[in-house]
């Protein structure tokens, strides 16, 4: 409210200055005033003096306005004002909310007037006599105030009125055509349309919108990103591949992987702390070890351009089939700003999640498939950043991110369900329930002009742990016939730097080169529980009797050296390619397996030379095609392979081989004012893929995977938008090693066909609605193996509604709108007592406001 009063006062002062200088009126418009309003600072005393002088200038003679004519123009309309002494009319022009106000001192209208439905952008024009003298003309815009400019005329006063939308199209053309830059593809800022890869960018607005139905990234991303399998509805991404292979996750460039792969990389940050997400589909040699399927680069919240901004969000959620027992809430708070080279961000969130219930009102076990569930959680996240612009080229920034979720449930999986689906039992007594903690410290320094090059560097530290639900392994001698609960612990310190150097002027040829290094220490300790107490309680009571290591303490050092060239010989064509040399050393301490086998420690060494090359050709400003070859590299999960090693074995004898993936991709992209679309085909090959047999033992043999991905977004008009994505993937392996790829890959790697669609409508100026759909198809790879049984299709819909209310926005989100009963793909893969149904229809209500 105070901002509006200040704006109106500044505008009134500007109008009075124009009044005292008629010549300046013909050269000045209110749209120029918008850009300069903060520079106007007349005091109240000055304002009063100017107003007195203005009244003196018209000598207290009343001017009669006899007629106002409205004419259409190409840019808007003209107001032609006629009177007995029109040449002496001096207007005061200023905006207020969505209205442009034009006032005349010492004037009167012969007749008040009002006209409505002037145009799509201008809803009304009204002229009235003021009680204390003078005339006010108001021009009301649809969403924003129009602007006005005085046109010189000898006989009349002519105002050229331009709607805000037209101003944006004419004078804000540069802003309207802002080119989005991405950093993930080549570790340097690059126009998205010049990247020879399939890449999806999810901005802050989309993250906020999807968070109105779910706060789980594993559920948000598949509804927006082609190539990524549907959600598992667990804390694990096992069974949720990208292009049929493992996905790598970065948070501000810090890798979230662990060498004992816990498969929980998307449960390390809350969506409220995320500014944007860039998803690179397909492997990337430029980032080194891991990510053979692609990269998800999470970029945390940025500071606002204003000195201080505060935003608050509060809300609650519940599954409507059992409102009371599923009730949860969340609170978010953001502070951020910039002033005199200093920038800061503080964001924190806290949420509780109640029990999960399916569409038949049955409680879903909080530990589906033993992967860790999302029900009965308390989640806390905090993000802090402080940065300083040393000069116009140099910036240093420090950030801290801490995430903690803790399950606290009285329920567990029933070992003998009464029907086909998994069931929950009450009475769980487990001292330490599943939990994830992730602490990341990040110090970065950037210099945009270092001897003509650009330097980006960072030093980071990560402390991570995640605890699983206990496993009943009483029938497995390899694990000592124990009931046990394990926890992956990882501590990592690393650094990255890269230098982007021009070779030819005007960015015709650049080379990006640099180094990555990190050291990680990890282990997987396990608590062992009393088997008799567990059996007598029918799997409800866990009483600790000892501890050991499920996987041994392991150290890992990674060094990567890389160089990447970007060449644009002509405007329509660009080419990029590079090489990376990777060195990985893994050291394992001597240890005793839970089965009692003694394993002698040792060192394992890996190295790989990786290449990538790709090009983009633009037919015109709207359509381009691209082709790309990229390699990815991933070492084996050494610690996992060792936990069932035979007695008296040595680490160096096992030496599990690394995986190298070659991927070829071609695609086409279109980008028009109201349509954006892409279609791509990919093919990938690896000599040593990873699958599982019926006993969940690892199989290593050659693999081929191919697929088609597409997406489209179409703005039909200002009010309606539609769009969707397509994902089709298939794959085979060669178990005999004879070149015959005749055995289909299982459903944990190759998901069924996935289709998504949405329709979005700006129903009123303040009310927006979105309906979105997801279809996951059937797939039956057939054969004998852990994940070769068929999975069946399902179809879900979500509804999101947002209404501007007061100083904020009220939102309502409904997930699984039709209360569809279905099983997520990973639940169908596990089957049996672990086949947990999906959540029923759920409701989320929230209110966001700025202060």
Automatic annotation (TrEMBL):
* Its membrane topology: Multi-pass membrane protein
State the GO CC annotations: cell outer membrane
Q: Would you tell me the protein name for this molecule?
A: TonB-dependent receptor plug
- Report the record's Gene Ontology biological process terms: siderophore transmembrane transport
> Where does the record place it?
Cell outer membrane
- Provide the TonB-dependent receptor plug domain boundaries: 192-294
Q: Which InterPro entries match?
A: AMIN_dom, Beta-barrel_TonB, Beta-barrel_TonB_sf, Plug_dom, Plug_dom_sf, TonB-dep_rcpt-like
Q: Which Pfam families match?
A: AMIN (PF11741), Plug (PF07715), TonB_dep_Rec_b-barrel (PF00593)
UniProt domain TonB-dependent receptor-like beta-barrel: residue ranges? 392-817
Q: Which SUPFAM superfamilies match?
A: Porins
Q: Which CDD domains match?
A: ligand_gated_channel
Q: Where is the signal peptide?
A: 1-26
Query: What keywords were assigned to this record?
Result: Cell outer membrane, Membrane, Receptor, Signal, TonB box, Transmembrane, Transmembrane beta strand, Transport
Q: Which family does it belong to?
A: Belongs to the TonB-dependent receptor family.
What residue stretches are annotated with the AMIN domain?
Answer: 67-160
UniProt-recorded Gene Ontology molecular function terms: siderophore uptake transmembrane transporter activity
């Amino acid at each position: 409210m105070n901002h509006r009063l200040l704006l109106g006062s500044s505008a009134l002062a500007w109008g009075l200055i124009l009044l005292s200088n008629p010549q300046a009126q013909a050269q000045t418009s209110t749209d120029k005033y918008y850009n300069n309003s903060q520079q106007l600072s007349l005091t109240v005393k000055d304002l009063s003096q100017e107003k007195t002088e203005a009244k003196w200038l018209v000598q207290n003679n009343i001017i009669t306005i006899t007629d106002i004519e409205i004419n259409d123009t190409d840019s808007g309309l003209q107001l032609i004002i006629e009177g007995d002494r029109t040449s002496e009319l001096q207007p005061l022009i200023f905006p207020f909310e969505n209205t442009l106000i034009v006032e005349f001192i010492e004037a009167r209208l012969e007749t008040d007037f009002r006209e409505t439905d002037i145009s799509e952008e201008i809803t009304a024009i009204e002229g009235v006599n003021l009680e204390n003298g003078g005339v006010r003309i108001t021009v009301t815009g649809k969403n924003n105030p129009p602007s006005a400019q005085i046109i010189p005329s000898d006989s009349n006063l002519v105002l050229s009125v331009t709607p805000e939308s037209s101003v944006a199209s004419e004078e804000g053309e540069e802003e309207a055509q802002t080119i989005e830059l991405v950093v993930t593809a080549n570790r340097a800022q690059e126009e998205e349309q010049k990247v020879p890869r399939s890449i999806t960018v999810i901005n802050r607005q989309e993250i906020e919108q999807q968070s109105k139905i779910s706060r789980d990234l594993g559920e948000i991303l598949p509804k927006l990103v082609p190539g990524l399998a549907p959600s598992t509805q667990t804390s694990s991404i096992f069974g949720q591949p990208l292009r049929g292979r493992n996905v790598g996750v970065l948070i501000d460039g810090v890798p979230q992987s662990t060498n004992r792969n816990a498969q929980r990389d998307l449960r390390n940050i809350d969506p409220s702390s995320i500014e944007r997400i860039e998803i690179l589909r397909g492997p990337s040699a430029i980032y080194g070890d891991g990510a053979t399927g692609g990269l998800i680069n999470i970029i945390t919240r940025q500071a606002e351009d204003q000195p201080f901004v505060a935003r608050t969000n509060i809300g609650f959620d519940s599954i409507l089939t059992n409102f009371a027992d599923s009730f949860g809430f969340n609170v978010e708070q953001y502070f951020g700003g910039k002033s005199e080279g200093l920038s800061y961000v503080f964001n924190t969130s806290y949420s509780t999640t109640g029990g999960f219930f399916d569409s038949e009102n049955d409680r879903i076990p909080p530990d589906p498939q033993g992967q860790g569930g999302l029900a009965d959680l308390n989640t806390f996240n905090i993000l802090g950043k402080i940065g300083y612009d040393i000069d116009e080229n140099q910036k240093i920034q420090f950030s801290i991110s801490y995430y903690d979720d803790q399950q606290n449930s009285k329920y567990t999986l029933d070992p003998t369900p009464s029907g086909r689906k998994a069931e929950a039992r009450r009475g769980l007594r487990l001292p330490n329930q599943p939990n994830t903690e992730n602490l990341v410290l990040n110090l970065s320094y950037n210099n945009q002009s270092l001897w003509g090059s650009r330097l980006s560097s960072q030093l980071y530290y990560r402390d991570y742990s995640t605890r699983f639900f206990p496993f009943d392994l009483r029938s497995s001698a390899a694990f000592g016939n124990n009931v046990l609960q394990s926890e992956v612990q990882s501590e990592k310190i690393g650094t990255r730097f890269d230098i982007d150097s021009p070779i030819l002027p005007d960015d015709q040829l650049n080379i990006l080169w640099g180094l990555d290094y990190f050291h990680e220490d990890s282990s997987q300790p396990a608590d062992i529980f009393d088997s008799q107490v567990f059996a007598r309680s029918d799997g409800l009571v866990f009483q600790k009797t000892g501890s050991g290591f499920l996987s041994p303490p392991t150290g890992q050092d990674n060094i990567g050296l890389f160089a990447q060239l970007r060449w644009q010989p002509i405007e329509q064509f660009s080419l990029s390619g590079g090489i990376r040399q990777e060195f990985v050393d893994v050291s394992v301490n001597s240890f005793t397996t839970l089965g009692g086998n003694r394993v002698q420690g040792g060192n394992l060494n890996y190295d790989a030379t990786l290449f990538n090359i790709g090009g983009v050709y633009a037919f015109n400003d709207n359509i381009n095609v691209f082709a790309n070859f990229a390699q990815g590299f991933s070492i084996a999960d050494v610690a996992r392979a060792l936990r069932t090693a035979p007695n008296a074995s040595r680490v160096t004898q096992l030496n599990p081989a690394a995986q190298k993936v070659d991927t070829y991709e071609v695609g086409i992209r279109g980008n028009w004012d109201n349509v954006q679309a892409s279609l791509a085909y990919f093919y990938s090959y690896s000599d040593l893929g990873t699958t599982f047999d019926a006993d969940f033992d690892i199989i290593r043999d050659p693999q081929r995977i191919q697929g088609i991905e597409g997406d489209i977004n179409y703005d039909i008009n200002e009010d309606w938008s539609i769009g969707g994505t397509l994902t089709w993937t298939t794959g085979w392996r060669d178990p005999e090693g004879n070149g015959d790829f005749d055995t289909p890959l299982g459903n944990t790697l190759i998901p069924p066909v996935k289709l998504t669609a949405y329709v979005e409508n700006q129903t009123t100026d303040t009310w927006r609605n979105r309906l979105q759909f997801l279809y996951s198809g059937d797939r039956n790879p057939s054969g004998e193996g852990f994940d070769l049984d068929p999975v069946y299709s399902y179809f879900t819909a979500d509804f999101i509604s947002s209404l501007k209310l007061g100083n904020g926005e009220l939102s309502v989100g409904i997930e699984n709108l039709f209360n569809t009963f279905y099983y997520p793909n990973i639940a169908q893969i596990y089957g049996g007592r672990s086949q947990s149904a999906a959540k029923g229809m759920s409701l989320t209500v929230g209110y966001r406001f700025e202060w």
